[in-house]
Amino acid sequence: MAGILAWFWNERFWLPHNVTWADLKNTEEATFPQAEDLYLAFPLAFCIFMVRLIFERFIAKPCAIALNIQANGPQTAQPNAILEKVFTAITKHPDEKRLEGLSKQLDWDVRSIQRWFRQRRNQEKPSTLTRFCESMWRFSFYLYVFSYGVRFLKQTPWLWNTRHCWYNYPYQPLTADLHYYYILELSFYWSLMVSQFTDIKRKDFGIMFLHHLATIFLITFSYVNNMARVGTLVLCLHDSADALLEAAKMANYAKFQKMCDLLFVMFAVVFITTRLGIFPLWVLNTTLFESWEIVGPYPSWWVFNLLLLLLQGLNCFWSYLIVKIACKTVSKGKAGKWNPLHVSKDDRSDIESSSDDEDSEPPGKKPHSSTTTNGTSGTNGYLLTGPCSVDD
């Protein structure tokens, strides 16, 4: 184990040339990031999870009820042992041949069996109240952490001149505010890793899990080798659009359509501006070029920049999807009326639906493959195909 740890914490990988871990030990004059500090994220993640449960029950739920958001779930399918066995053990979406076989076995018409499966699928979907509470919690946290990040960064020299991220690197002292900001963000993503298994399950579950894992790795990596200054810029920049997205969802659940549309447009503008404009021109410029000039490259420098470039690739992909959705929804809007997010039920996002399609076809009418959700999913909740459709 000692050999493995020595290999993992190789100074020539993590630190610039002629710098050792002993040089970054805490002293009376200065405090530096220590790997063991990251253990604080685990109990704090548990506390965040518990705060969320209390928030959703005593704050979000009363707000939802005040907005006339009902907790009533979808219509319940009548009990049927044969159909229930097929649903749980074989398929939730029976094909035409199986429907005909069940029709003969139960002496039901095919429409009634289709209706039963549709109602049974809808039973597994959470109520609008549950969705509202989840979005309100995320909105509140994102708003708080982004506000804290802005308040903290505007007092720092590296916000106004990114070259300060690398002056005297890695001998940059760790302040209490920076430590709190980093550990809070890391704890939140650890809590998301756990709560993802209890939250509304969506089709992008696997991708979101990988996203949270990658985010945790990036935060941890930048903390250990004391790239925390530029890390705070990355965190704050990527938090800027999240609260707007959750606010748009809340407006959707409350059936405030115009507000939902406006919030989504604001989200799209902020997202594309920060991810395709500010992030590459501001953050990537300093991590790739200014750091090369001031510090010079070393192994963990290459890894860190590779991770940021991969993140930028995802930003481009998400932005493309948002623009594509905007063009699609405009073309589907009514002539002469601007309604940027009014799309059909079949075009909704997996973010706002659960793991199954909404199944809105009339009883007995076979769904067309061209109008079903294609199952594409996005990371970090940004693949949207009309999140503010009232039908959600």
Automatic annotation (TrEMBL):
Where DNA binds (residue ranges)? 85-128
Quote one Gene Ontology molecular function term: DNA binding
Record-linked InterPro entries: HD, Homeodomain-like_sf, Lag1/Lac1-like, TLC-dom
**Domain TLC: start-end pairs:** 130-331
Q: State one Pfam family annotation.
A: Homeodomain
Q: Which residues cross the membrane?
A: 38-55, 180-198, 205-224, 260-282, 302-323
* One of the GO biological process terms: oligodendrocyte development
Where is the protein situated, by its record's location annotation?
Endoplasmic reticulum membrane; Nucleus
Positions of the UniProt region annotated as Disordered? 341-392
- Provide the primary localization: endoplasmic reticulum
- GO cellular component terms, semicolon-separated: endoplasmic reticulum membrane; nucleus
The membrane topology noted for this protein in its Swiss-Prot or TrEMBL record is: Multi-pass membrane protein
- Specify the domain of life of the species encoding this protein: Eukaryota
Which keywords label this protein? DNA-binding, Endoplasmic reticulum, Homeobox, Lipid biosynthesis, Lipid metabolism, Membrane, Nucleus, Transferase, Transmembrane, Transmembrane helix
Q: Write down the CDD domains for this protein, in alphabetical order.
A: homeodomain
In terms of PANTHER family, this protein maps to:
CERAMIDE SYNTHASE 6, LONGEVITY ASSURANCE FACTOR 1 LAG1
Listed name of the protein: Ceramide synthase 6
Q: Which organism is it from?
A: Mus musculus
User: Its gene?
Assistant: Cers6
